Prior knowledge:
disordered N terminus; 345 residues; globular; 2 domains; alpha+beta
Amino acid sequence: MRILTLLLLVISALACRKVPESIDQKIFSRIEYVYSLKPTIASDIWPDFNKSRYDVPLIYYTDTSSLVANPTKRFLNSYNPKLVYQNGGIRIYKVSERIDNIPFHMATGFTMGDSSAYDNYTPFVHSSGYEETRKVVQDISSTEEWVTMVIHEYFHGFQYKHDEYLRSLAQNIFSVPQDSLRDIYRNNEWFKEKVDRENELLLLALETESRTKIDSLISTFLKLRKQRRKETKQRLGFDIESYEKTYETMEGTARYVEQKLYERFSDKLPDSKLISSDTSYHSYSYFKDYELDKEEWLYLPSKSAVYYYATGFNMARLLDKLKVKYKERLFNEGELSMEEIVKTL
């Protein structure tokens, strides 16, 4: 009897022991984490973000496999993946092998004009996992930081799911790579100085409470910007206006959403599922003492990967400050840019 009791105690102890979750379960939790942030963004940061018509499939890459959340029928027909996880509105499939050999992914993309492509005019978020991302972006140290990068890309998917906006991009913009503007800024000191001065005016407008002074700063900003574009066309033979306004709106708003998550994370309660499944999840400790002023890469062109990320981000902040209802219009009105809205102030 004593032996039987002892065996029962051992069995009970084993049953209660926390079993480490599999690598796949960690990935499932991370993908759910991405989608779980959509309601917060829709209610506090950008309206309509959580509407089903703006849902975007997400392909998660490990070093050996690809998993896709909420794929389209065309993707399912193209790759015949296996359903490996389902919870509520999230369905995750696993492809038998990695769908490409690109070592690192952090982008949202689609194919244009290829009816056989699974992503023909249909945006997909492509994201490497945290472990693979950290090999490339070495200053991130947690799943929470990684997820803000994924949300940045997911917001691009949200943008592209607006049909009129997508058509405008496909017809008028994507023929000129974003790198073209980045290289102009990096390789021409006169151009860099003028962009930096324009950005200083935006920052001054953000700091002042005088509407009269803000209006004066905006007027000067627009005047200097017009002069710079004219000089760029004369010196380089390149009319950058439409490209700059479009990429500034596209990337500036994505950075804006990303940064607003930093603010929300500063007082967000930890996710119990991630605590148990993901050792790279640090319960938002990185964001506890978050201060925007310390994150110069967000708002200074010289510290940013591409200058218009920063100028666009600052325009969005300025429109917020002036209580302009711009979020309801952007992407719904095709080619409308933040600069065009600023001109109406």
